[in-house]
Amino acid sequence: MRPVVRLAVVLFCYAALFILPVFAGGHVHNGVRAHGKVLGIVSQTNLGHIDQTDARMGSDVYSCENLSTDDGGTMRVRISGGQVFLATQSNVELEDENTEIEVLADSGTIGFSEPSTGTLSIRTPAGMVRAEGGSAAAGEITYKGTNELIITAMRGNLTLDTDGELRTIPEGKSADVTYQDALSQACHEPAALEQASTHPKIDFLILVPAALAIPSYILWQEMTESNSKPSN
Fold this sequence. Notes:
The protein is an alpha+beta fold and 232 residues long. Helix content is 16%, strand content 48%.
């Protein structure tokens, strides 16, 4: 009977190796268990990271993984028909919210662009930034200092939605936004639910845009031309 018992133990161990990851509810990405489904793919990177690993072209990006760039680094991530661009020393996470994908802009400078699908939004401590009316748009968000953001509409109008109160950033303009009692930036964490009723106090001032950290052609032309480029 001993050989039979040993065989049963070996088969059980092999089965556990394949079954346990499935029931764990996550994916293994570069040796690190991810938090959800794939939301994007890295299309360009230099000194970029996904959680604690170096990002590579073609790397999948899962929900709630931290994307970051070192000093002098950049990263571009394709998200459906749109894209997100991280400038130097920036951090974001992606979160699936059923009808749209939220980009949690945590620090640095983050650019974004999307076609007229209305499926991409940028979550900031001051509220949600979206293309106005679901139209095609490109923009940039920069953390200027403590409790201060600069939101720039490069292409199309943008809106800042703070608990249903909408403010418009016209195309070619920037908004200097200061805030208190910031909205939570947690990704699928209880803290986000606890602060759902928080109403940030906002000061909102339209400015003529200064020099941008991310040239608009990087965000806009690359997106529009990519659909027409022949496949190799």
